[in-house]
Amino acid sequence: MIKKITRHIKDMGIEVRYVALDSNGFFGCFNSKPIIMINAQLDVITTAVTLLHEVAHFLNGDYDKAISNRLQNNNMEYEANRFMIQKVLFLLDQEHDFTPHTNYYQIIHSLALPSHLNTVVYDELAKLIQDKYGIDDDKATYQYYQSAQESANYISSYRKVVPMTKNYFKMPIDDRLSFLFPEFRMAKELYTLIDSDRAHIGEFLDFVEVSKDHTSQEAYFKLKLSGMANQTDALYVLALDDKLIGCVDLHGMDLLANKAEIGYWLHSSYANQGFMSKAIHQLCTYAFHNLGLNRLAIVADVANTASNQVALKNGFTFVGTEKEVAIKSGNYRDHNHYYLLKRDFMATTLDK
């Protein structure tokens, strides 16, 4: 089945490569040729879902695409997407045995496709269920469950969102390190983390001074979640073995210019172990290949050696130093500026 799907993708003029990756996969253009990179260690289901996700973005022009003119026709794009969805739903049904009670909302969410394809997923799943059980009325095909637990066994691992021991949800970076989606109930734990390391975290970051209790973190979450809704921000809490250790974020996001700035902080107990460098690499992968950004920037105090090293280790280019641009503890501070372009990140990934 994967060979058939891959062959169909290649017929569209898109190259598929199976390589060693930290993430499941991503797409881009290399030497003006559209290409999809897939983690060679994925199982069949995850490979199929990842291929579907990336091809849908290509065909629907979500980001830069360099596909032959014959695929610019809307009907061609629609039929190609429908074909991919049919094949992936077939594989998912083999794995999870869909029934008339299947929660299709969970499937739509897990596939993470462009929103206008949701109806295609619904239609194709309805046809699959009708053929499988001889149901004629597709209104009777689905019963909506309130509990996500009913459908948890077939949530796609494309996103790799799994429950933690504290019932947070995470996107693994590796076997120990994960991004967590911010939740208000983690505010107390995050405040305790900051409060236990004020001297280190607050040396270069102003927010520590105004962080007085857990309500400060709740207010920050509200601000960033509002930014997420407005597509100007993205915030993720960094966890190691289910323990909160820091935060990473995108801010100043401009979807017209496809750019954003990265921010990050880490508790001193976990410094100099490569955790933040690995987290920022994963964030860059997500920003370039899921959000469609083209340019990422990092600004670091010249005296913040660790922060500057994170930028350099991830291939960011040093632009220059902005003199006396900020005041911290009554002293003027200089900031180093770095940038990373999607094409440079893509080329570096292909070279590995």
From TrEMBL:
Domain of life from the UniProt record: Bacteria
Protein's UniProt keywords contain Transferase: yes
Domain N-acetyltransferase: 188-345
GO cellular component, one term: cytoplasm
Secretion signal span: none
Pfam families xref list: Acetyltransf_3, Peptidase_M78
Gene Ontology MF, one: protein-N-terminal-alanine acetyltransferase activity
Keywords: Transferase
Protein name according to UniProt: Putative ribosomal N-acetyltransferase
Species, as recorded: Pseudolactococcus piscium MKFS47
